[in-house]
User: What shape does this take?
Amino acid sequence: MWERQGGRVAEQLDDCAAAVVLADDPSAAAHVALGIARAQARHRRVAVADLVGEIPALQARLPADAPHGLVDTIQYGVSLGKIAYPVDPAKNLFIVPSGVGPMDHDALLDNERWRALMRTFREAETLVLLVIPADLRQASELLQQTNGAIAVGDVHVANAQRVIARIAPRRPTRGSSSPEPSPGDARAASRTSPFPRRATWFALAAVIALLAGAAAIWRARHTARAGPLVASIEHDSAFAHDTASAAASATARPGISIANPADSGRAAAYAVTLVTFNTAPAAEAQVTASNRQGLPAVTVSYVALGADSSRWYRVFVGAYTARAPADSLLGVLRRIGTLAPDAGRVVRAPLAVRVRDHVGVGDAHAIATDYRDKGIPVYALLQDDGTFTLYAGAFETPAQAAMLLPTLRAAGEDPVVVYRTGRVP
Assistant: This one.
C-alpha cells in the first residue's frame, strides 16, 4: 500500500533533485520512497538512501554481498560506485544502504564527504530520496539542502512550507484488520499494478488542508530559491479559469492541430522550469517576481494531475532553439541564487499558444504587461522581420496547450496552438 501511494505522488518530484522521506514508521517511509523511485526510474536515475539504519524494507532488496554503505563512504572514503546498488533491470534505481555500524548523524551529516556525495548525485542528474528518522535533529537542515519533504502518516514537519506531498494512511474499514499490508503483500501489489504517474486526490487534499489562502501567496513569493511548492487550489482570476471546463475541452478535442507545422525545425523549444504549483495566485506571484527580476520569456503551463485531473501550474523561463543557452540560463539562475543549487531543469517544450502576431516594437511590452495584469501568462519573442509575436505557455504536446485555450477565449482572444518561434529580445 505504501509503495503504491509513493508511486502516485512521484510526478510531484519531476523538478526535484533531492527530497527527504520521513515517517514515524521507517518501514512506511522506505516503502513510499521505493514507490516514488520506481515511477521516477522510468525516465531517470534514482537513489534511495537509508539514513535511519538497516531498514529491513531496503536491506531485503540488496544483494547478499553488499557490505558497504553511507557510513563506509563518509568515515572511510569508500567510493559511491561501491555503495549504490542497482535493484532494477534497467539499472536506473539504486539503493544506498546505511552501512556497517551505528548511524552517528552528527558525524555523518557534518562531514565534508557528505556534502561531496550530495554534489556527486546532483552532477549525475540523479534524484536522491533520503529516508530519515522523523525525530532527526538535522531534519530542518536537510529540508533546506533538498527540494523538500514527503511526509508519511501523521509525522510532524516543523517547516510545513517545505512539504512537497503528505501521504495519509488509509483508514481500516469496519471489521478489517490493520490497513498496512505485509512487505510481501506490498511486493505483490507492485508486481500486479502499474504505478500511476499522477498524484491522487487524497494526497492533494492533505496538502490543501495545510496550505491555504494568504499563506500560499506568501510562499509563492519565496519559492524561486526553494524548489517545488504545493499550495491550495483557487479559481479566482482569468488565469484560474474553471479546471473542469478546460480539461473537458482538451478531452473533447484530442486532435488539436498545430497551425504552423512547417516551423517545427526552428522552434524555440528549450526552456527552464522554475517551480510547479497547484494554486493560480501562487503561480501568478512567481511570474510577477520573475518578470521584475528581468528573466526572459516568463510563462506558465497548465498540467492536469491526479485521478480528478486537477490543474497544476508550471512556471517556465527562456525560449531557445538549442539546449546550450537554456543550460547556461539554468547555471546562471543557480549561481545568483534565484534557484537552489539543485533546483530547476531544462526541458523541451516547443509548443505555445499564439495570442497575437506582427506586434510592433513599441507596443509589445505594453500589451504583454496588460495581459499579465489580467492573469494571462503572455511573453513576447522577436521575429526575423523585426516584429514581435505574443505567446502564452510552453508545452510538450498539443493536448497540454489545449488546456489554455478556454482561458484565452473567455478573455475575448482567438488563440491557436503553434510551434513557438523567435528569440528573446
